[in-house]
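Listing S7. Sequence submitted for prediction.
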Amino acid sequence: MTSNNKFPQLSQNLQSVLGSNNNHCSFPLDIYPKELQEIISKISAGRGIHPDYLASAILFSYGFAIGNNCSVSVLENSAQLKPILFMCIIGNPGSNKSSALKFSMKWFYEKDKDQYSQYRIDCLKRRSLGHSLR
């Protein structure tokens, strides 16, 4: 049977994940403390963010916060591993995917903005004192 559709067909699993009425959480929320699970549930309901999106964005922000400050070695005398996390959120357009990441990274965005403002002030002070920026 030939189809005129040029795009590949989605598997049943992917269709169920992308379904618009799917509010089932498949992210393992039990990795978080009970208090954080409750916060995720309340924010998810209040802001209309799917719990999977929010929980994964929070995990990503944990990895972002740790950065290169910590590492772990699985075996003695083996390579040091950093908590580098990549995240890909797949969902329908308008399903509030970006809101989850913006919410979980808000503190970092604000901190970065404050530090950049301070950097600009310091640059202006140095310039007014006649120092080179280099």
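Caption to Listing S7: primary sequence and predicted structure tokens for the chain studied. The CA atoms of residues 71 and 77 lie 13 Å apart. The chain has a mean pLDDT of 83.
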